[in-house]
Amino acid sequence: MSKNLINKYVWLVETLYKAKKITLKEINRKWTQSELSEGEEIPRRTFNNWKNAVEEMFGLVIMCDKHDDDRYYIENREDLEEGGFQRWLLNTMSVNNTLLENKALSDRILLENIPSGQGFLTIIMEAMKKSQLLEITYKGFWSEHEHTFPVAPYCVKLFRQRWYLVGNSVNEDIIRIYALDRVLEANLSDETFKYPKQFDPEKYFKHCFGIIHDEDCPLETVKLKVSHDQANYLRSLPLHPSQKELVHTGEYSIFSVEVRPTFDFQQELLWNGDALEVLEPQWLREEMADMVKRMWNNYNKK
To answer: Which of 57, 54, 68 lies closest to 15, judged by CA?
Structure first.
């Protein structure tokens, strides 16, 4: 399937989503104003083909309301509003569309660099689909030497511009998480594995902030006092899906999250500087205070 055709499907979904309900005539008016159209309208037969392709690719059902001037709409738009894979996939393709349509502005579009590693996604996906073991050569940040070993790939996760592989390390029979930018080589094995029915990627990371899964770290209700200005940031970009705002005043807000306060979560709290204070649990409050003291001692050295 050509990129140009996929871009057209994405354009159609975006147009329907923004309009909520729209006639084919209105769709064509918007289409002819797009650089993708080359000034030509969408024939009804082509439009129907696009509808079917959108359902197959994104799982989005486009319906026509005969009682409302034959207006088209996305029947299950809540799938996009709730986020998840479909929303991420569409957003990614939408950004690609925007960039492709504005190549003349490339020197004015600044992007973040993503470390190498995503090149292994194709072979990992193939291994996941075929339930085949992977032979990976890996060198962790804290290892002096590389190691080659078999892994049963369970899922992949994207976090902070890095892709991670979650799988069972066969030799240890334990689930481990591998950063793809630390993978030196990956090859399909002739051996297969059985994906465990009890493993649910969403549940596995449900109470994690990021990529660290540590069941030895207790699940806590963490309460945070946040300055008025920084609270706006947390409202627009929550720390975790469980985030709730308990108190809102003109000077500060108090938020709660249900997480395991692992190292990556603590680092995120430090990122907020003095605009955020841990209220509960007490052990985490003390741990954060100790971190701040150690930082102060580092800067206070003569």
So the answer is: 54
